[in-house]
Design a protein that fits this description.
With about 525 residues, the chain is of the alpha+beta class. The strands form six sheets. The protein has a four-stranded antiparallel sheet, covered by helices on one side. Strands 10-11-12-13 form a four-stranded antiparallel sheet. Strand 15 and strand 16 form a beta hairpin. The chain is flat and about 90 Å long. It starts with 5 loop residues before the first helix and ends with a strand. The model has no long low-confidence stretch (mean pLDDT about 85). This is PH domain-containing protein.
Length: about 525
């Protein structure tokens, strides 16, 4: 049996043994049974993993990455006929197009040796989505094969070389330097040159909708009715109930008044505490009303600020895109949240409004796959689009109201963003951190997740904290108050660094993302509108 299979075999055997022990012992203590059924198999599996890493017959060598995410499986396996390399994430986002597999038969090997990694050398492998995986610091293995040289940053490189030499005799030493890097860590960029374009007449742009005052009057009235008024009325009309929760929710709404898309969630903040008191005091008739109408009214209030005229310069406007993604036009920046159907780690990307040098609506008759930094491709073309350039970045957004969106962006002024100076290694650390923070395990698959769950959890625990403070339950207070404060502080800490990652999707000193000249096409068939 191969050593890397030991942990799985150990898990199965330990689980069977734990179940047998619980049944035979007949323990009636749930805590003890749970500890045996869960703890023993996990401990045995971990110990088997440690032993397998030091086994004499080890044939699976993982590639070095720091830090190591939970989904990391990149490795090279020494098989009977050769070496099989499998790479799917490189320690970053999982490639949605599947793993990269490379096989070298023993007859293809001409030489092998180790050398120290060189800062700035070329990626050692390219994932299926076009991203290159950088070579980490430390010693690496260099294979010379009939098709060229292959760098392998494996753990325990000397042991790997010894194992390969034991399989293939007479391999020569390899004496060669590192290949300089070509920036591929975010995937293959679009071609840097495009054909000259001829502007065409676009559709008439007509921003329609109520005035800003009407939007605020209707939207704020609906949102505050669901957030404050309705829960307060339900509590006031129920004898013996305090109504502090709606007041707290009202303060949260004021803090989020320029982000209408959150008003439905904010309106739900007072609901758990309100329902708790209504159940305790017998106000059952109000419960379905509060559960349904509070978030509904908040949501309807936020819908008053859809794309159109009279939006002002401070309210965030969400614009849905044809590929399932969304663009958020904020006071001083644009945020592109990609379609969450991608595998984990597709974090939002952002541009400062003050950095924009080109806002160009247009169209293309054919459908194209536009590469987005990070190894993601999104369909563009065959309809209206908006082209945005803020060097070195360039976005092509498939949006139906391209002309209206362009007018909204032009109407908002911003100052150029402050450039964060960082080295390539610092950028890599930031990028990998952002990938880890936006990757979650859902039903056995890794998917993209946001960081806002901390605020939802803080809202729930905060509601219970307020209830425990009201009734004076000391144990509940000691648990929920620190938990709520910790969640809020963690969100604030993560949000600051995530904003930096959103604006730094390209490594330092990157080339422009494709053709950025206004009179040249970024994609084939591009037709800008006059």
């Amino acid at each position: 049996m191969k050593p890397h299979h030991w942990p799985f075999v150990a898990l199965g055997v330990a689980a069977a043994a734990a179940i047998t022990f619980v049944v035979v012992a007949g323990s009636e203590m749930p805590a003890v049974n749970m500890a045996v059924l869960v703890g023993v198999p996990l401990v045995v599996m971990y110990l088997a993993h440690l032993v397998s890493r030091r086994a004499a017959g080890k044939v699976l060598f993982e590639f070095r990455v720091d830090p190591r995410p939970s989904w990391y499986t990149d490795a090279v396996e020494v098989k009977d006929g050769g070496l099989e390399i499998t790479a799917v994430s490189g320690g970053g986002r999982i490639a949605s197009s599947g793993p990269t597999k490379v096989f070298y038969g023993f007859g293809d090997l001409l030489g092998i040796s180790t050398r120290p990694a060189v800062p700035g050398e070329a990626p050692w492998i390219t994932l299926t989505d076009g991203r290159g995986v950088p070579v980490p610091a430390g010693d690496v293995v260099v294979l010379r094969t009939t098709s060229g040289e292959q760098v392998l940053p494996v753990e325990e490189p000397q042991e790997f070389v010894s194992l390969v030499r034991s399989k293939v005799s007479g391999l020569a030493e390899v004496h060669s330097g590192a290949t300089p890097a070509a920036n591929q860590e975010v995937g293959q960029a679009p071609p840097p040159g495009g054909a000259r374009t001829t502007p065409v007449e676009g559709p008439v742009v007509s921003l329609t909708g109520p005035s800003l005052a009407v939007r605020w009057l209707a939207g704020a009235t609906l949102a505050l009715a669901g957030t404050v008024v309705l829960p307060a009325v339900a509590l006031i009309t129920t004898p013996g109930v305090a109504w502090v929760a709606p007041a707290i929710a009202g303060v949260v709404w004021v803090l989020n008044r320029t982000v209408p898309r959150t008003w439905g969630r904010v309106a739900f903040l007072a609901v758990p505490a309100t329902v708790f008191w209504l159940v305790g005091k017998g106000g059952y008739a109000w419960i379905p009303v509060v559960l349904v109408l509070c978030p509904l009214l908040g949501y309807l209030g936020g819908r008053m600020f859809r794309l159109g005229a009279g939006l002002g310069r401070t309210v965030e406007v969400r614009v849905p895109l044809r590929d399932g993604a969304s663009l958020y036009v904020q006071r001083d920046r644009l945020v592109h949240k990609l379609n969450r159907s991608h595998d984990g780690g597709v974090h939002p990307q952002a541009l400062w409004l003050g950095d924009l040098t080109l806002v160009q609506p247009g169209t293309s008759p054919d459908l194209h796959a536009w590469p987005v930094p990070g190894g993601v491709r999104t369909p563009v073309g065959n309809g209206p689009m908006l082209r945005l350039v803020a060097r070195p970045q360039q976005w092509i957004l498939p949006v139906e109201q391209a002309g209206e969106l362009a007018e909204l962006i032009r109407s908002r002024r911003g100052t150029p963003g402050r450039v964060e100076r960082m080295s390539v290694e610092e950028w890599r650390d930031l990028h990998r951190w952002a990938v880890r923070r936006t990757t979650a395990n859902r039903r056995g698959n890794y998917a993209t997740a946001g960081i806002g769950w901390r605020l939802v959890a803080a809202a729930v625990s905060g509601s219970f904290a307020w209830m425990f403070l009201t009734i004076g339950l000391t144990v509940g207070i000691l648990v929920t108050v620190p938990l709520t404060a910790g969640l809020l502080l963690d969100w604030w800490r993560v949000r600051g660094r995530m904003r930096l990652a959103e604006h730094a999707v390209l490594p330092p000193d990157s080339s422009d993302w494709g053709e950025i000249r206004a009179d040249h096409a970024p994609i084939p068939g591009w037709q800008p509108w006059r």
